[in-house]
Design goal:
This protein is α+β, with helices and mostly antiparallel strands. The protein has a domain at 26-47 and 68-133 and 153-170: Electron Transport, Fmn-binding Protein, Chain A (Pnp Oxidase, Chain A). It has helices at 3-8, 67-75, 88-96, 104-107, and strands at 29-34, 40-45, 47-53, 56-62, 77-82, 112-114, 121-123, 128-140, 143-155.
């Protein structure tokens, strides 16, 4: 870049932002799980990401005081359910109510199916469901980060191209 180009560029002012959850946006996800006693639950999770492609691994952060934490810890599995705008009311409810206070899945008429590879339910009305087996976890500040090996990925048929890849641009994420 020559000096004249640098002079013509607008000066961008920077200001300090809050540190909490500074890596955004991220897709809204609901993590579903099943306890050893067969009890099922789902919770909204703010921390979720890919962490390896070989083997495929995803990571979800769950606060240890959350009702689902023990279920995931004991069962060793979970499902990451990607949420689109049509599921906003359910997402908001599941994210703001605890199973300790009642059966929120029944209250919201959440449709469930058994996972094919892990002992946890998938949320049928979510466009993508990622079945995971816990391979590691680490407590990182306020959350325990569960690293899950991707065992199976369900996706609405219309989202999958000829190579089996998901076209995420067709999902109207929250």
């Amino acid at each position: 870049m020559d000096i004249s180009s640098a002079k013509n560029r607008a000066v961008i002012q920077k200001k300090q932002a809050i540190k909490k959850s500074c890596l955004q946006p991220a897709p809204a996800v609901l993590v579903s799980c099943r306890g050893l006693d067969g009890e099922e639950n789902a919770l909204a999770v703010g921390y979720c990401c890919n962490c390896s492609y070989d083997p495929p691994l995803v990571m979800v952060g769950v606060v240890p005081s959350r009702y689902s934490h023990k279920m995931i810890k004991e069962s060793g599995c979970f499902v990451v359910n990607l949420v689109d705008r049509s599921y906003k009311e359910t997402f908001d409810y599941l994210g703001s109510h605890s199973k300790r206070d009642g059966d929120k899945l029944t209250a919201m008429h959440v449709r469930l199916e058994d996972g094919l590879k892990v002992n946890a339910p998938i949320l049928t009305d979510c466009p993508v469901n990622i079945e995971c087996s816990v391979v590691d976890s680490v407590v990182a500040g306020s959350h325990e980060m569960f690293v899950g090996k991707v065992e199976y990925v369900h996706a609405n048929e219309k989202l999958i191209d000829g190579d089996g890849k998901i076209d995420f641009s067709q999902i109207n994420f929250l």
